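Weekly sync notes, structure subgroup
Attendees: PM, AL, DS (notes)

Item 1: joint prediction request from the bench team. They want all two components modeled as one assembly rather than separately. Inputs as received:
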Amino acid sequence: MKGQDLALDHRQLFSLKPETLEERITWFYQLTQNSTVTIKYILTLRVRYQLGAQEFAYILKDLVRYLFLNTKATRTMKRFLHYFKDYFLDLEWKTLSLKLFSVRSFGEKAASIVHSLISLVCPEEATESSPPSLDRTKSTQ
Amino acid sequence: MLKLVANFKTSAGKSQTWSFDNPTTTKSSTEIEDLLDRLSNVKLFQKDGAWLFNTVDGANYVETTETEIFKKKA
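Output from the run, pasted for the record:
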């Protein structure tokens, strides 16, 4: 069966029963190994829960925990992690946050912010560190 | 029956109406807006190459009242 056949649309995600969706999404992940789309499906079900469908509380908790704790998190997974905070114990959450948002990535973000601030205050310094433009290369020839 | 009816724009600029039956009425307007923003941020649903819930324009609660006119006996 192709990935497209396994895919779920918004009507299915907002109308099918929790048991059916749990089965379909688990099946989708097992056959495609696409953790990004899987997390997006479950996040949509979290929206359904928070809009009033109480039967979707902690939907696919085991799969979410497995994806975040046992697989390499994609950028999308990292982006949406905070929506699943209640799926983890406090200690797990701290460990997971440290693992996914390491000091290195924090340092890179901080450096990027500092650089953009410097470019606002002192545009010349900021452009000095950037690679030479095509025009500059042409003028030296 | 109460419905939450939300108006989105697709990435092609077309209107996309979406509704949710029996929504909670305990959430604030900011919380509902946040949830609908989340639906647009997920970027999961596409049709003809356009994201269906690209941006959210607004939402309303819509109450529908059914009044029986007649019912034939079996």
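Discussion: The radius of gyration of chain A is 22 Å.
Action: AL to compare against the crosslinking data before next sync.
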